[in-house]
Structures are given as C-alpha cells and as structure tokens.
Design a protein that fits this description.
Pathway: Glycan metabolism; pectin degradation; 2-dehydro-3-deoxy-D-gluconate from pectin: step 4/5. Belongs to the KduI family. The chain has helices at about 15, 20-30; strands spanning about 5-10, 30, 40-45, 50-55, 60, 80-85, 90-95, 95-100, 105-110, 115, 125-135, 140-145, 150-155, 160-170, 180-185, 190, 195-200, 200-210, 215-225, 225-230, 235-240, 245-250, 255-260, 270-275. By secondary structure, the chain is mainly beta. The protein has one domain: Jelly Rolls, CATH 2.60.120.10. The strands form five sheets. A seven-stranded mixed sheet has the order 1-3-4-11-6-9-12, with no helix packed on it. The longest helix has 8 residues, at about 20-30. It is globular.
C-alpha cells in the first residue's frame, strides 16, 4: 500500500488557547506532505476534509481507499480537487488521461472508481489535493489558469498586492461543497488575506509553495482576539478551523493554495476582522 492518511480530530478554541508551539504544530501543521512514490495526508474531523500530497516518481500511484472512509473506493462518497505544483503530468480518471501543467487544477466527482497519478517525463510531479464528502456526482473537469476566475486585490504600498485564481469554485466548476483556488503574491508583497476574516460555515486549509529554501511564512490562526502563529516553509500545509482567522506574512513573496469545505459554496460568506481589532 502506498497511501498513508492519518486522522486529526477537531479542537475547541478554548482548548487551543493553552497549546504550546509544538502542540499547535502537531494539531494543525502538515510538514512532510510530499514523499516519493507515496500518497500522504490528513483526514481532519473539521468538516471531514482530507488534505494531502501525491508524488509519483518511479511508478504510477492509484488513489486507494483508506480505513477512515470505510468505503469500497476512495470517491464512493467523496469529491476530489487536485492542483499540480510540480512538473507537467498525466492524471488518469476512469481510463481518460488529463494533462495537468504546473498550477493547473482537476476536479473529480463522486462515483469515480479509478484515479491514477503518473510520473512526469519533465521533472518531478507534485500534486496537492483536497477531498470532501459529496452528495451528488458532478463531471470531471480540468481547469487551467486561463479558465480561472481572477481577482486582483491589495497594493504594493500595503505589501499585499496579489492575484486570486478561483479554480474550483461554483462559477467555474460544479461541486458539492469543495472549493479550491490559488493566490499569487506579487514581488514586494508578503501579506495574504489581510484584512483577515473567519467564516463560521466553512473550514479551510492553506498550502504554501514557491518559497526558496531559506524563506519562510508566518501563518496566523486562532480567534481574532486570541491569535496564534505557526512558522512554515515550502510545501507545507495548515488546517484552519471555522472559528480561526487564516493569514500569513512571508520573508518574500510566495504562492498559496486555499481549499474550503462546509455549509455552502458562497465564496463571499465571511466575517471580516479589522487589523486594529485583532489581538
């Protein structure tokens, strides 16, 4: 078996107030998300999202069911979103090949029985994925950057000039509850999702990449008046509960993938928090 998915349980915000640095990292940080010829990840009881990485190097990897699902196959009751952060590669979905270039996405709906991730002939394939429970089957769909709904926000003066690429959202792809996208910070900008917000009806996960080996991002989480931080490096992900803000500042510009699951597909459903009100 080439799949290793571990379970992390939801945490109450009052409990998290007492976490030290290591406990905070143990509960929310995914450090070694890409391992050669493995599918690795976390099944979190926050909205039952699975967050993980796939690195087919010397062989193709099939999406296997895992014990947490108690399902005949992985997508029996789930949907899947994939974004390629490595070299161009092929993902085979029930016998049909889909070529994913760097920073392109693929949505795979409930009921698909076979998903195969193939090694790249052009380098190392690195596929980041999110999976959420699904109640209806929607078609598989590839989404390139030219297909994304793009939003430009922020400014260089405020160190947060960024382009949001909405890849798997209901204006681009039909899905049950999964949403994914990618935000690219412009050179000279280091702040993401600032002003910060929470959304009680959805949890979220962030994956940071396009960082040099000596660069880092300080990811901020916690209740707006009880914030915490986690220092992160390239190719690491973090779980963000519905009660938590999710923002970051880096030692350089970077790119991150956001994924959400929960009550609705309303991208704008959020409760904004003014920076001066955070503590």
């Amino acid at each position: 078996m080439h799949t290793n998915i571990v379970t992390r349980h939801a945490s109450h915000p009052d409990d998290v107030k007492g976490y030290d640095t290591q406990k905070l990292r143990d509960h929310f940080l995914l450090e070694n998300i890409f391992q050669d010829d493995q599918i690795t990840g976390v099944y979190t009881t926050f909205d039952r999202l699975i967050v993980g990485g796939i690195a087919p190097v010397s062989k193709a990897l099939e999406l296997e069911t895992v014990d947490q699902l108690k399902a005949e196959y992985f997508l029996e009751r789930r949907e899947l979103g994939i974004i390629n952060v490595g070299a161009p590669t092929l993902v085979t979905v029930d016998g049909t090949d889909h070529k994913l270039n760097t920073k392109e996405a693929l949505y795979v709906g409930k009921g698909v029985k076979e998903v195969i991730f193939n090694p790249s002939a052009e380098g190392k394939a690195l596929l980041y994925f999110n999976s959420a429970p699904a109640h209806k089957a929607y078609p598989t769909k590839k989404v390139g950057l030219e297909d994304a709904e793009k939003v430009e926000l922020g400014s260089l003066e405020n160190s947060n000039h960024r382009i949001i690429n909405k890849l798997i959202v209901n204006s681009v792809v039909e899905s049950c509850q999964l949403q994914m996208g990618m935000t690219e910070l412009k050179p000279g900008s280091v702040w993401n999702t600032m002003p910060a917000h929470t959304h009680d009806r959805r949890m979220e996960a962030y994956f940071y990449f396009d960082l040099a080996d000596d660069a880092t991002v300080c990811h901020y989480m916690g209740q707006p008046q009880e914030t915490r931080h986690i220092w992160m490096t390239n190719h690491q992900a973090v779980i963000s509960p519905a009660w938590s803000i999710h923002a970051g500042s880096g030692t350089s510009n970077y790119t991150f993938i956001w994924g959400m699951a929960g009550e609705n597909l309303d991208y704008g459903d959020m409760d904004k928090v003014a920076p001066v009100d955070m503590k």
